[in-house]
Amino acid sequence: MGDGPRAGVGDDLKTRIVAALAGARRRTLSLTELDAESLRRQVSPLMSPLVWDLAHVGNYEDQWLLRRVGSSAGAARPELDDLYDAFRHPRSSRRGLPLLDGDAARTYLARVRSEVLGELETLAPDAFGGESRLLNGGFVYGMVAQHEQQHVETMLATHQLMGEGANPPPGSVDPRDRPASPVDDLATVEIDSGPFHQGDAGNPWALDNEAPGHTGVTGEFLIDRFPVTNRRYLEFIADGGYQRRELWTTEGWGWRQEAGLKAPQFWDIDGGTPHLLRFGTWVEVDPAAPVQHVCWYEADAFARWNGGRLPTESEWEKASRTDSTDGTGSEADPNLGGRFRGPLALGAHPSDDVGPGCRRTIGDVWEWTSTPFHGYDGFESFPYREYSEVFFDGRYRVLKGGSWATDPIAIRRSFRNWDFPIRRQIFTGFRCVYDPRRGPDPEKSNTAPVRP
């Protein structure tokens, strides 16, 4: 937070808060500039109609920034709380609810935001360092901004599911337009055994499941320097990966059969040259880009085929600290914030082949780990159980690193995402770890490990 006068610290934090809230809102509004029918369309039972997401982010802000920490509730609409409660209404049922239409939702969002900014302006600078845990470090404002950015990513997944003819996200660039130089996608990194700091390292906007920060310990292992590419995944498909029962867990094989899996979601491999559907347009699969839209079971089967396994959350987080990029969204960092509408080919970032260590640990694709989602020892739910604690039932797997759609304010090396192992509509990929004495399957890799 700096060493200057408290008032200056508060003013700087207010500037950061305003920017975070405004950045999230710009993305929300850009993705909901659609006609009424499109806003109410249910593209999948897994996704809400976009008009539900639109009003939900306003209701969340209403509840937390006007009614929990605000001194006034002039714009508040408590009668909407039930309608936009994600736990009361499954996504598949939301289209049938008496939702606000687009214009009414936007009016609601604007009223709430105007009052929130007015109250923020009058908030005493020392409020951010006082007794209120919600206000300390501006936490509650950061929570609201991150919540909206998480819904932005969900809305982008909804756009992707709209199918052929859908329009690409406004303001984004086709990732194929970014020049790339050749990079070795088979390289591995050697990670030493021993302790490291895992989890929150004091970020005031870290969310409850990132805490408490603690000492993690791993053994020695090798890990892919980059996320697994489409080229490598196509080899898995060509080698019968989807037909070889021995590569899959019992649950995974059952799901592969039930869902008819034969390639990542949105892929077409039946017409010769593999293509994928990206926001309404069929494009050739870029061999050098990280594979995307694979579920945990697919990632796990690939890892076994390649002589490895998926990393534990601890292994992933430790390895990610060898990545010289810092996840702030600068040009040298992996793809974040929806600047491009998909993962970028390896070699498209200046840092891809500079120095030792892992790369692309922040951005491009969420990465599956083998770890079930749970609370760390000493976990404390804050400020509500429904953010994390209710999901600690062993059914979810931890995802790390963020995707091209994730905003920089909503990702950290300690950040923990989670989902069911069958999910593929999210922007997911993976990398593998290997026994350091054996490495990957020698028939699939001829590269020596590099040390960070």
Overall description:
The chain is α+β, with helices and mostly antiparallel strands and 452 residues long. The protein contains nine helices and twelve strands. The strands form four sheets. It has a four-stranded mixed beta sheet. The protein has a three-stranded antiparallel beta sheet with strand order 1-4-12, with helices on one face. A three-stranded antiparallel beta sheet has the order 5-6-7, with no helix packed on it. A hairpin with a 6-residue loop joins β5 (267-268) and β6. α1 (6-31) packs parallel to α5 (139-160). The protein is globular, with a radius of gyration of 22 Å.
Please write out the topology:
Blueprint: H1 6-31, H2 36-40, H3 50-68, H4 102-122, H5 139-160, E1 188-191, E2 194-198, E3 214-218, E4 221-224, H6 230-238, H7 250-259, E5 267-268, E6 275-278, E7 281-284, H8 296-305, H9 313-320, E8 366-372, E9 397-400, E10 417-419, E11 428-429, E12 433-434
Parallel strand pairs: 8-11
Antiparallel strand pairs: 1-4, 2-3, 4-12, 5-6, 6-7, 8-9, 9-10
Helix pairs in contact: 1-5, 3-4, 3-5, 7-8
CATH class of the largest domain: Alpha Beta
Count of individual beta strands: 12
**Fraction in helix:** 25-40%
Kindly report the CATH topology of the largest domain.
paralog of FGE (formylglycine-generating enzyme)
Question: Could you list the spans in which at least 5 consecutive residues all have pLDDT below 50?
Answer: 1-8, 327-331
The major sheet is characterized as:
4 strands, mixed
Arithmetic mean pLDDT: 92
Strand order of the largest sheet: 10-9-8-11
Output the structural class: alpha+beta
CA-atom Rg in angstroms: 22 Å
Q: Alpha-carbon distance between the termini?
A: 30 Å
Q: Can you tell me the CATH architecture of the largest domain? A: Alpha-Beta Complex
- CATH homologous superfamily classification of the largest domain: paralog of FGE (formylglycine-generating enzyme)
Number of helical regions = 9
What proportion strand?
A: 5-15%
Helix and strand run: HHHHHEEEEHHEEEHHEEEEE
- Total domains, how many? 2
Specify the overall morphology.
globular
